[in-house]
Design goal:
The protein is α/β, with parallel strands linked by helices. Helices cover about 35% and strands about 20% of the residues. The chain folds into 3 domains: about 10-70, no CATH class; about 75-300 and about 425-460, Alkaline Phosphatase, subunit A; about 310-415, no CATH class.
């Protein structure tokens, strides 16, 4: 059970007199236990009923808690969307804030993300510690609409577990947080034509908090254009870190992902996103302070794409199903009922013919394995899945490539990047890094899985056993 000393002054004084273990005093700087008593008393008598707010705001290290004889520190989690481990190391050469973070913290590279390696499934895996097959967010889209509603997550999340412990949570443009029970919530929403972004956000997030932040930072926005959106995201996160001091803060930065989709892996053309990412990291670290555990991670990498294809041009109009396109992979979903056993595919004339056509295409990489189908959550809704060959991706807007190119199902000469590929593709690993507390400085490790981020955050927050089903 976490004892939040900020919100219970009586327990603050009791802790000083009775139950504070020696380990609580083993700090590099003075802890709030030594805050001058006369200052506290002065605040109490001078400000009347407002004494508690004045005292708490004046405390130098309000992020420290007594927890089963140890310390719990506040946690800041920053998602670097689409930054692979090799991208991060390349950035460090020209980005002072990224380089400084790595010098003062621990970096784990060569981390395996989860399949399907797209933003919403991976972020929900980080939030739950479970693969898509268990939390049920298997794609960015559902019936052509972005999956923004957290009520679709069928597993306990970090913010749920933190709230049960009495901890406060903030999330700024974190995927799949619409209508989540998060105290300070600015959910990432993709609106439909005719909808108003601010009104939809107010409905799905923390109303008064969002309204205040929108009014304060609205001039930084240019719709969802990057890097302006990340500037807005960071400004809101800086406010909440300084003013509200949540126990867990989740921040999603997407400029690098947006630029990769537009320009591919040309590092020169990605510089505006790199500069933005570095600057925003520095702002967040400054706002968080030295005594906050900061975790950075990436959900997926991006691969260079020169050509796109729409496999639905092979399937044509049929009564069996259609391909659902997920960037570097595609799944043949049936239209009605549950899919039959994949061992019977060869006995189905239409599927046998379709499989033969797929194998002949120059964009075909390989069929997805049974394990990949299961982990992704598509084994219950799709007959089979395919992966695009490196240099190709499946265009998510069905029929557009065929319309643009006449009878040809592919569009050539497109310089961009994409994700959604199998996790064993080359140069497709991700990373996570942590700074603060007892984590060693300038340390390097290799390996692991993206769910290690969940375990790390849960352990720092004292959420024992969270994600144990993974």
């Amino acid at each position: 059970m976490v004892t939040d000393l900020r919100r219970n002054p009586g327990k603050y004084f009791a802790a000083i007199l009775t139950n504070i273990p020696a380990s609580c005093f083993n700090l590099k700087k003075e802890a709030f236990f030594f805050y001058p008593c006369e200052t506290i008393c002065s605040s109490y008598f001078s400000f009347g009923t407002s004494w508690k707010k004045t005292w708490l705001d004046a405390m130098p290290y309000p992020q420290i808690y007594c927890h089963r004889g140890g310390l719990i520190m506040r946690v800041l989690v920053i998602s670097f969307d689409a930054v692979s481990d090799t991208d991060l190391l390349r950035m460090a050469g020209t980005s002072p804030c990224v380089a400084g973070f790595l010098q003062k913290g621990t970096l784990v590279s060569g981390v395996e993300t989860v399949f399907v390696s797209n933003t919403y499934p991976v972020h929900t895996t980080v939030a739950t510690g479970l693969p898509p097959k268990d939390h049920k967010i298997i794609s960015n889209l559902r019936n052509g609409r972005w999956v923004c509603d957290s009520r679709r997550i069928q597993a306990k999340t970090l913010w749920d577990a933190a709230a049960e412990k009495g901890l406060r949570v903030a999330a700024v443009l974190w995927p799949v947080t619409g209508y989540a029970k998060i105290r300070y919530n600015v959910p990432e929403l993709h609106i439909l034509p005719g909808q108003n972004q601010i009104l939809e956000n107010l409905r799905a997030g923390s109303r008064w908090f969002q309204l205040r932040e929108f009014m304060r930072h609205r001039k930084k926005l240019r719709g969802i254009t990057q890097p302006y959106l990340d500037d807005f995201t960071t400004s809101v996160a800086v406010d909440v870190l300084r003013r509200k001091k949540p126990d867990l803060t989740l921040v999603h930065l997407t400029a690098y992902d947006a630029f990769c989709h537009m320009y591919g892996k040309d590092f020169g053309r990605l510089q505006p996103a790199v500069v933005s990412l570095d600057r925003n990291l520095g702002r967040l670290l400054e706002a968080a302070g030295e005594n906050v555990i900061t975790v950075i991670f990436s959900d997926h990498g991006q691969l260079q794409v020169g050509h796109t294809a729409d496999p639905n041009t092979l399937a044509g109009e049929n009564e069996t199903g259609a391909f659902e396109l997920c960037g570097g992979s595609a799944f043949f979903r049936i239209k009605k009922g549950n899919p039959p056993s994949r061992s019977l595919l060869s006995e189905m004339p239409f599927c046998r013919e379709l499989l033969h056509k797929v194998c002949q295409e120059k964009w075909f990489g390989r069929f997805l394995t049974e394990e990949e189908m299961t982990i992704s959550g598509y084994s219950s809704v799709a007959l089979f899945g395919i992966a695009a060959k490196p240099g190709w991706c499946f265009y998510e807007e069905k029929a557009r490539s065929a319309a643009d190119c006449g009878a040809e199902p592919e569009r050539h000469g497109i310089e961009k990047g994409n994700h959604g590929y199998p996790t064993d593709y080359e140069d497709y690993h991700v990373f996570y890094g942590v700074r603060g507390g007892d984590f060693p400085a300038d340390a390097r490790k290799t390996g692991g899985r993206i769910t290690d981020v969940t375990k790390l955050v849960a352990n720092v927050l004292g959420l024992q056993g969270f994600g144990a089903g993974n």
